[in-house]
């Protein structure tokens, strides 16, 4: 099992720009993905059964994003904490760092630190690791 100790996470640029707006939490990736599969954008990365598509099934732009994260993992480069929010249908949305969230999940990570809007803190209680 991979853990966040294997990766150095740095603040997302959005959180650096508005530090009073965002907070950091650690989320359970399985719960996040279960919710995110209801997103309008999930089809780009998830099969109809909610499982992450293999690299070869992603579109070329998404393949490049995933490969960039894979390369960062291999070379121990820091990754930006993704930014998550709650969508109109009360599901998790990935505002920034989608390739990071999904590549780490595909590689066996079970939880990661993310940024969320402070106003969504109570909405994210079910997703805490």
What does this structure look like?
- The chain has 129 residues and is an alpha+beta fold.
- The model has no long low-confidence stretch (mean pLDDT 92).
- The chain has 4 helices and 6 strands; from the N terminus they run E-H-E-H-H-E-E-E-H-E.
- Helices cover 29% and strands 21% of the residues.
- It has a two-stranded parallel sheet with strand order 1-3. Strands 2-6 form a two-stranded antiparallel ribbon.
- Helix 3 (60-74) crosses helix 4.
- It has helices spanning 13-17, 29-36, 60-74, 98-106; strands at 9-10, 22-28, 79-80, 83-86, 92-96, 111-117.
- The protein has one domain: Conserved hypothetical protein from pyrococcus furiosus pfu- 392566-001, ParB domain (Alpha-Beta Complex).
- The longest helix has 15 residues, at 60-74.
Supply database-style keywords.
129 residues; alpha+beta; two-stranded parallel ribbon; two-stranded antiparallel sheet; 21% strand
